[in-house]
Amino acid sequence: MPHEDSRLRVRRQDGIIRVEFIDRNILDEANIQQIGEEISQIIDAETNPRLLISFANVDHLSSAALGTLITINNRIKAKSGQLRLSDIDPQIYEVFVITRLNKIFNIHEDESQAIASFQ
C-alpha cells in the first residue's frame, strides 16, 4: 500500500480502488515515477483491478504523467480490469482531446458517474 511519503490518497470502496493525487501539479519526473510505481503495486495486488483515478485536486499535468497513465491503463487491461478517470480540469481535459487520449480513457465528469460506470 502507499508509503508514508506517498503522492497518493487511496481508498477502497465496494470493490473499487479510488486514487486521488496529493499534489496539485504533477510535473516532477521523480514524483511521476513514484506515482506510477505506487499505482502499479496496487494493480499487481488485484485479480481484476477496478481503479478510479480522480484528478479533483490537479491543476497541471505533464506529458510524462500522461505517459504513465497510458502504462497504467495497459497494465489494468492486461489483468482484465477497468480504469476510470474523473474530475479532470477543463484545461487538462483539453490536452486529452488534443492528444486523442480521451478516446483511449474512460473519462467521467465526476466520481459518482465514474463509479456508476463500472460493471
Commentary on this structure:
The chain has helices spanning 29-44, 63-78, 90-98, 101-104, 111-116, and strands at 8-13, 16-21, 25-26, 50-54, 60-61, 82-86, 107-108. A 5-stranded mixed sheet has the order 1-2-4-6-7. The protein has a two-stranded parallel ribbon with strand order 3-5. The model has no long low-confidence stretch (mean pLDDT 94). With 119 residues, the protein is of the alpha/beta class. Helix content is 43%, strand content 24%. Helix 1 runs parallel beside helix 2 (63-78). The chain has one domain: Transcription Regulator spoIIAA (2-Layer Sandwich). It is built from 5 helices and 7 strands; from the N terminus they run βββαββαβααβα.
Structure in a nutshell:
The chain contains five helices and seven strands; from the N terminus they run E-E-E-H-E-E-H-E-H-H-E-H. The chain is of the alpha/beta class. It has a five-stranded mixed beta sheet with strand order 1-2-4-6-7.
Question: Which properties best describe this structure?
Answer:
single chain; 119 residues; alpha/beta; Transcription Regulator spoIIAA; 5-stranded mixed β-sheet; two-stranded parallel ribbon; 5 helices; 43% helix; globular
Mind sketching the topology for me?
Blueprint: E1 8-13, E2 16-21, E3 25-26, H1 29-44, E4 50-54, E5 60-61, H2 63-78, E6 82-86, H3 90-98, H4 101-104, E7 107-108, H5 111-116
Helix pairs in contact: 1-2
CATH class: Alpha Beta
Order of helices and strands: EEEHEEHEHHEH
Helix content: 40-55%
What's the overall average pLDDT, rounded?
94
Structural class: alpha/beta
Strand content: 15-25%
Strand order of the largest sheet: 1-2-4-6-7
- The Rg value, from CA coordinates, equals 13 Å
Strand segment count: 7
Kindly identify the CATH topology: Transcription Regulator spoIIAA
